[in-house]
Fold this protein.
Amino acid sequence: QKAEWDKLRDEKTVTADGKSYTLAANIGTPKDLTGVHENGSEAIGLYRTEFLYMDSAELPTEDDQFEAYKEVLESMDGKQVVVRTMDIGGDKHLPYLPLPEEDNPFLGYRAIRISLDRQDIFRTQLRALIRASAYGNLGIMFPMIATIKEFRDAKAIFEEEKAKLVEAGVKVADKIEVGMMMEIPAAAVLADQFAKEVDFFSIGTNDLIAYTMAADRGNEHVSYLYQPYNPSVLRLIKHIIESAHAEGKWAGMCGEAAGDPIMVPILLGMGLDEYSMSATSVLKIRSLMKKLSTTDMVELAERATKESVTNDENIKLVNEFMDKF
Ligand code: PEP
Ligand code: MG
């Protein structure tokens, strides 16, 4: 197996019927770049920037952030790097940014909600990102978007900061894709409307499953409800992908499910374009995809969303399908 994976490292990700997909890596800090390269990742689909804030004793300055983003972009040598703006709140806290005491922090003040409220913090991050864009292929996405207004507001602030930097003569990339995480059911249901305004979607299954099933992803007492293959979750995912494609946009996934061998065949059948996962899963998934034919997977995805009614049925369905290969 090691010999096979060594060979796969420099290969593109192509299915048995010749379709290409992007296998990307999730990172938390520039230190993770070694793993990204060692495992032949074709892009970075999620750079979780909250670690920059969490590993610091105070708010990271614009220059600190610029250096980190630039390092990642340069290291990827023209391959896309999707950076997610700060996703603080929920279970992630900053010692120097007191958050309100909340009964339900996962339904509370977090992620883009904080960024739109604390625009000083948000604008600093966006300026650092826009400056870094000159050094590679940057995409930016916003976490926990629930409404079209949040996306429009966040994008407008991005455009304002970009215009100011251009005005000041700072070099910025010609094109910076601006997209959003799809991890709140309200947004997923309205994906067809969102798709008109974004450059791309990245599906955050970790949260999307939790909010769809109303079951905390870390709570062992309700872990039986954490069901990635529940047809309700799969239908949302399918709707997100189809909505993106109907507007000529791409759809990726950066939750754990993107590197899950049971989920990947279904996602291929739905036409998901980009799969972003822990770097250590990239070669395993590339090896799997090479064996699969997209056209067979279309039938699998149809059955998984239209015929199955439970999570377990879908696990069985995929396993039966895969026995053929
Ligand atoms: C997700 O929710 O699937 C995701 C990728 O974001 P995080 O795990 O950082 O919340
Ligand atoms: Mg999330």
